[in-house]
Structures are given as structure tokens and as C-alpha cells.
Design a protein that fits this description.
CATH class of one domain: Alpha Beta
Strand order of the largest sheet: 6-5-4-7-8-9
Low-confidence stretches: 1-6, 9-22
Order of helices and strands: HEHHEHEEEEHHEEEHEHEEEEH
Shape: elongated
CATH topology of one domain: D-amino Acid Aminotransferase, Chain A, domain 1
Number of helices: 9
CATH superfamily of one domain: DNA ligase/mRNA capping enzyme
CATH architecture of one domain: 2-Layer Sandwich
Radius of gyration: 23 Å
Length: 284
């Protein structure tokens, strides 16, 4: 049967077009901004001197710069490890079976980060503490009502991160509620830390430092599969090892989504392995 298409016609059903939204909290791409209100004197000075770099530099030291919803240069990289199939030959060539890796469970959830960014002001005489949350790809500087900000409030993350006195960005797996069907049967939302990033030094904490941070400041972290082990001599053995179970709620055992390997000496060297059994079980 032929369908005549005319301008303005809704053809979504005729053409079989379907909109798929995997995560509604990732859909909102509206760029946010936070700026300090300007008084009359500041407006006058900006009008006269903003074109001069020295004025802009002095103003930034005194008042600080405005924040935008862009991914800032000082922030940790967006969370997304490469799959082992792309990296195995190179990783095994470099490290072989040497026990230099920590292995953690890959939780089925949403990547969520929060930071306490300490910014010197008035030429170092005082500081400003900025707090915001991020999804895997969005820098959400204002409370937009998303599940990310709701969980941040429920866990009191701004107060807890500020209390550390550290200039850090912390990333974790956000699970519970309706996230990914809540396969773990979590009664409330949880945030399982897998990365701590020092903003001042631009360095990621080692696996051991991350665990110490979580212990000291009472944050949950992703389940530990092994604190020290070496790679297997074939990709298939690596894939087989990724199969397993997690038990985030006592008595509720579920297939593990996969594992993440992090080098013990070089914390930025990471890769992930998705469990073949998990993929088959969930039809992925």
C-alpha cells in the first residue's frame, strides 16, 4: 500500500519511527550557568575596563569566574573505560601476568560525579567552595530536579565533601529506584564510589587511596573482586573471569554486569570487561 506524503504530515507511525530514551536524566542538554549579581560600581568598571586582560585577571582573583554547564578543563575526564577486546594485546604486552591490577565490579547503574572545587580568591586570602553534580556526560551546576541532584541532597554530598577539606571530584555508580530496573533490589538510592580525582594536582587516586578515602569519610565504594592480580594469557580467560555475581542487598544475589581493571601504580590505566553471561541473561 502506497502512502502519499504531503508537507506537514506526521509520518512517524507510517515510517515506523520510534524514539528510544534509555535514561531520561541524560536527555536534558540545556546548558546552565551560575553568575554572581553585579552591582552598579562593578557594571561601571566592567564597561570601562573589561577589555583589558589585567582588569579581568584582577577581577577573577577578587570575585572568581562564573560557572557554566560546560565540561571544565579542571574536571576529571568523562567516565568511560575501553573494552578489553580493544586493549588486550597492548596491555598484555606491557604487563603480562604481573600482579599489578585491582579489579572491581561494574555496577549496573548511572555514572554520577560530585565535586568540591576550592577556588582561591582575594589573592589567596580566602577561598570559594563550588559544588555540583555531573552525569556521565553533563555538568549539572544547578539543582534541576534531576535524580542526580535528588540523590546528592539525600546523601548530603555537598556538606560531606566540603567537610573533607579536599579539592576533589568523586565519581561513583548511581543505583537504586528505577535506575536500570534496580536489579539489585536496593530499597533506596546508593552511590558506589569508583574514582577520586584530585583537582589541584590533576591526578586520580590509586585504588588503595580511593579505598582509604571511602573508609575515612564513610562513602560506599564498588565491590572489590581482587585487590591485586595479573592478567590472563587469553582474551577468553579474561571474559570468563568477568562472569560472577554481586550482592549489594543481603540475600539478593544477581549476575555481575562485568569488571573494571585499574593499574595499581598508574591509576589512569583502566579497562572494562562486560560479562558474557550477563549480556546473554539480559539480551544485550
Amino acid at each position: 500500500m502506497l502512502i502519499k506524503i504531503v508537507e506537514g504530515m506526521d509520518v512517524t507511525q507510517a515510517l515506523g519511527i520510534v524514539k528510544v530514551v534509555e535514561d531520561e536524566d541524560e536527555v536534558n542538554t540545556e546548558e546552565q550557568s551560575v553568575s554572581n549579581k553585579k552591582g552598579a560600581i562593578e557594571k561601571f568598571l566592567d564597561h570601562r575596563f573589561m577589555r583589558y586582560s589585567a582588569y579581568r585577571a584582577i577581577k577573577a582573583q577578587i570575585k572568581g569566574t562564573d560557572r557554566t554547564g560546560k565540561w571544565e578543563p579542571w574536571m576529571a575526564s568523562k567516565t568511560d573505560e575501553e573494552n578489553i577486546q580493544k586493549l588486550y594485546s597492548r596491555m598484555f604486552e606491557l604487563y603480562g601476568e604481573e600482579a599489578v591490577w585491582a579489579v572491581t565490579s561494574k555496577i549496573e547503574g548511572q555514572s554520577m560525579s560530585a565535586y568540591n572545587h576550592i577556588i582561591p580568591m582575594w589573592f589567596g586570602l580566602t577561598n570559594r567552595n563550588d559544588f555540583a553534580v555531573c552525569s556521565r556526560s553533563r555538568h549539572i551546576i544547578r539543582d534541576d530536579g534531576s535524580r542526580f541532584w535528588q540523590t546528592a541532597r539525600e546523601l548530603d554530598l555537598e556538606k560531606r565533601l566540603r567537610a573533607t577539606g579536599l579539592n576533589i571530584m568523586v565519581s561513583g555508580e548511581h543505583a537504586g529506584g528505577k535506575i536500570q530496573g534496580n536489579i539489585y533490589k536496593l530499597p533506596e538510592h546508593h552511590w558506589y564510589v569508583f574514582r577520586v580525582f584530585d583537582i589541584a594536582t590533576q591526578k586520580r587516586y590509586t585504588h588503595e587511596q580511593m579505598l582509604e578515602f571511602c573508609c575515612k569519610y564513610e562513602f560506599e565504594h564498588v565491590p572489590i573482586v581482587s585487590s591485586k592480580m595479573g592478567m590472563f594469557d587469553t582474551v577468553q580467560k579474561m571474559l570468563d573471569f568477568s562472569n560472577g555475581t554481586d550482592e549489594l542487598v543481603k540475600g539478593v544475589t544477581v549476575a555481575r554486569e562485568g569488571v573494571v581493571w585499574q593499574h595499581l601504580r598508574y591509576p589512569d590505566v583502566t579497562f572494562k570487561i562486560r560479562s558474557p553471561e550477563y549480556l546473554i541473561l539480559h539480551g544485550k
